[in-house]
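Sequence, please.
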């Protein structure tokens, strides 16, 4: 009696625990093949994640205090000086030698690696400010006796978060506007194009200068102003993809089968248009970070005292006798933007159809002039964008 052998279905490829299609697997492989962009992505990710925990790295408050048999967490909760035997009911200043002596008498405290936050003034300096780098202040201090390294860490986090939010929201608005323009065309496209021509002619810097002279600029105010203009950068590529794809056979077939316009846009055309958008986003992120840095350098950005990379450059310009300020700001911004550009190049390679759908077979015997062999299903995928 012959035994039947039942073959189990092949397991789907997974990435980070999620099932992915063979097309996305090839895109991930193409991204990894760009070694410079791949390692730039990991370096930038590590720097960003570390900056998210800036309060645990650079802070003038201890991680933990063990005092008189009790555990205290000053980073998460404010304690008055009287808690540790002091005379004042205000929040304890843990850099004060008197407070340190009170805590050491009945316990201990564990300080972060950098015992300064972005606004801590180093009152114990014995030389004029800005002071050069030393064993206490690794990148020196600025003209207000604040630790430069602490301000760089906090400023890096603000710049990247600002860029992320601005890029993502701008992409959502721009993709939606470009999809509507490209899919419907006609008068809708004509109206939006004329509106964008008028709107893009508004001088953004003058608008910011006028508003800053009226109200105090904040993170969300600057973000809202820039969002009014930044979304237009995504409209062109998405509109072009929709204008090209709306006449394809599979789109006409979906319309003939009774699919709604929303279903055709989001299910059939938008995934192809997102390829161009994803390629464009890392470069937009780099531009968004540069915009905030430039506004802070011109003193039209975040409120005075806020940690910012542009403010470091502004201090360097005002204190030419302190070259460590300019070198620090230059290298931090240059490294950050270089990493983002390298990541953008890797993303562009990952979504490049010439690298995604073509199988190169150097060992196969092909006739001269035929070029690379197109993989199965590639023609359909290329036709769909």
């Amino acid at each position: 009696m012959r035994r039947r052998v039942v073959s189990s279905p092949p397991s789907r490829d997974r990435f980070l625990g999620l099932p992915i299609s063979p097309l996305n697997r090839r895109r991930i492989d193409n991204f990894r093949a760009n070694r410079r962009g791949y390692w730039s992505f990991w370096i930038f990710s590590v720097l960003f994640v570390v900056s998210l925990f800036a309060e645990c790295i650079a802070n003038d408050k201890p991680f933990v205090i063990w005092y008189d048999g009790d555990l205290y967490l000053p980073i998460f909760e404010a304690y008055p000086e009287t808690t540790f035997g002091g005379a004042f009911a205000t929040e304890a200043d843990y850099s004060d030698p008197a407070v340190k002596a009170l805590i050491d008498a009945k316990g201990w405290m564990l300080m972060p690696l950098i015992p300064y936050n972005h606004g801590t003034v180093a009152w114990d300096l014995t030389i004029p400010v800005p002071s050069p780098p030393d064993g206490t202040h690794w990148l020196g201090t600025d003209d207000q006796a604040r630790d430069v390294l602490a301000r760089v860490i906090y400023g890096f986090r603000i710049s990247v978060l600002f860029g992320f939010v601005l890029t993502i929201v701008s992409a959502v608005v721009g993709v939606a506007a470009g999809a509507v323009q490209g899919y419907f065309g006609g008068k809708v496209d004509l109206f939006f194009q004329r509106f964008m021509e008028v709107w893009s002619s508004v001088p953004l810097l003058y608008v910011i200068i006028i508003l800053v002279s009226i109200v105090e600029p904040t993170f969300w105010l600057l973000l809202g102003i820039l969002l009014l203009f930044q979304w237009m950068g995504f409209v062109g590529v998405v509109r072009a993809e929709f204008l090209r794809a709306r006449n394809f056979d599979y789109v006409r077939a979906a319309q003939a089968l009774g699919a709604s316009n929303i279903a055709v846009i989001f299910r059939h055309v938008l995934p192809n248009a997102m390829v161009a958008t994803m390629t464009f986003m890392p470069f937009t992120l780099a531009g968004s970070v540069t915009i905030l840095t430039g506004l802070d350098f011109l003193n039209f950005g975040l409120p005075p005292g806020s940690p910012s990379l542009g403010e470091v450059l502004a201090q360097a310009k005002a204190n030419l006798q302190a070259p460590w300020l300019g070198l620090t700001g230059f290298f931090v911004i240059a490294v950050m933007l270089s990493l983002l550009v390298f990541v953008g190049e890797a993303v562009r390679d990952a979504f490049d159809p010439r690298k995604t759908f073509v199988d190169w077979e150097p060992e196969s015997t092909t006739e001269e002039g035929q070029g690379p062999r197109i993989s199965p299903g590639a023609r359909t995928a290329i036709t769909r964008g």
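The first strand starts at residue 14 and ends at 15.
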